[in-house]
Write a structure and sequence with these properties.
Phage repressor protein; mainly beta; Umud Fragment, subunit A; 7% helix; single chain; 47% strand
Length: 94
């Protein structure tokens, strides 16, 4: 399946794409989120990906965001697909 086909297979009117260092993710703002889900959020104006838990978020580098800082975070939606860039020369080969 081509990259464009993957994108359209996971898209709905409430879905959008966010670029990441490794490729991009598809985010659905209408999808119900639960603790343990991977979510997209905006922190100080920058889009980020993290894991939702009961009182905050955990970023990919392990930082925990909770308490007062949550007032500066906008949760954008649940990550429904992750598409990795396979043309990255630094990506390990099988």
């Amino acid at each position: 399946m081509h990259q464009a086909d993957l994108y359209h297979a996971h898209c709905s009117s409430s879905s959008f794409r966010i670029e990441t260092p490794a490729g991009f993710v598809i985010v659905d703002s209408a999808e119900q989120m639960q603790p343990g889900d991977e979510v997209a959020f905006q922190y100080d104006g920058y889009p980020m990906i993290g894991i939702l838990f009961a009182s905050g978020l955990i970023t990919p580098d392990g930082e925990t965001l909770e308490g007062e800082v949550m007032g500066r975070i906008i949760v954008l939606g649940k990550v429904t697909a992750t598409i990795l860039d396979d043309e990255d020369p630094d990506r390990p080969m099988i």
